[in-house]
Amino acid sequence: xxxxxxxxxxxxxxxxxxxxxxxxxxxxxxxxxxxxxxxxxxxxxxxxxxxxxxxxxxxxxxxxxxxxxxxxxxxxxxxxxxxxxxxxxxxxxxxxxxxxxxxxxxxxxxxxxxxxxxxxxxxxxxxxxxxxxxxxxxxxxxxxxxxxxxxxxxxxxxxxxxxxxxxxxxxxxxxxxxxxxxxxxxxxxxxxxxxxxxxxxxxxxxxxxxxxxxxxxxxxxxxxxxxxxxxxxxxxxxxxxxxxxxxxxxxxxxxxxxxxxxxxxxxxxxxxxxxxxxxxxxxxxxxxxxxxxxxxxxxxxxxxxxxxxxxxxxxxxxxxxxxxxxxxxxxxxx
Length: 334
Ligand code: ADP
Ligand code: TRP
Known about the structure:
Structural class: mainly alpha
Number of strands: 5
Strand order of the largest sheet: 1-2-3
Bound molecules: adenosine-5'-diphosphate, tryptophan
Order of helices and strands: EHEHHEHHHHHEHEHHHHH
Distance between the termini: 36 Å
Largest sheet: 3 strands, parallel
Number of domains: 2
CATH superfamily of the largest domain: HUPs
Strand content: 5-15%
CATH architecture of the largest domain: 3-Layer(aba) Sandwich
Shape: globular
CATH class of the largest domain: Alpha Beta
Radius of gyration: 22 Å
């Protein structure tokens, strides 16, 4: 008898080419988990979640490919993990409706993305508190709950901003179970801690919204230029420097070996010029990223390969989804 594997599941919204912060904070840890033998892992592109705000077809298509190609390029093994597009698994949307009928509206009123919109409208003095809110945005956490509960996920790795959504999913599953018996697995979340926040070029959190990112797969010479833009102080080259108070060092340690990190720290304490430090950072980043970059470019040049992989993932996912739904339909009296 083999051991009973736990189900790991996570969704990624297609938002275009991921940056170094996404890689270190979300993609790399999720891939490391997905690799573990103790898990059956499900990884999907949450394209319908993006439809809440992306209303340009070409943009949605392109961003979906960029995200899928990124995960594949960084080592996602589509044989090991079930890798699919949310939109290729229509069972999600049937479960979404079932869950809607067990979700108090007030639960969704409290969801943070919706509340932020209400607050924006109030601050802008608009008479309609729901101005700019579509039902997709309002029910976003429901669709996410369907993604998770459909595959009986045990554990869901997410960033801190998604914790509330996980709590909503747990709430809904419990409400359903209270009525029909324990048919929905109540998922646990694995949170990526804020302390692991990767700084951007200006020292604030690396984020698309701050325009301070290093996109993962820019050409090597562009990567070098971006690294050279990292903000530093005006201390002279020979001045001893504290590695723990340096953006460059923080990034370097994520890409270098333990020995390299030690010797880089020494160099800091002896005095290093910022130019030299940046060059060293660029070298270790480029070393790590050059192979995935080539693979990424290859996939983006032939997106049919990506479609193929995603579709075969959906073919593996759907029978599982169908059998879960069958069970649920019976339980609710259909
Ligand atoms: P952005 O802030 O650029 O819009 P997202 O919100 O799309 O990034 O983040 C996607 C995932 O990447 C989330 O799991 C988030 O926690 C992680 N992430 C984003 N930026 C960083 C960062 N600077 N450091 C660590 N993790 C990050
Ligand atoms: N809402 C998540 C995000 O914005 C993406 C997502 C959709 C997700 N469905 C999910 C994450 C299910 C985990 C599980 O990042």
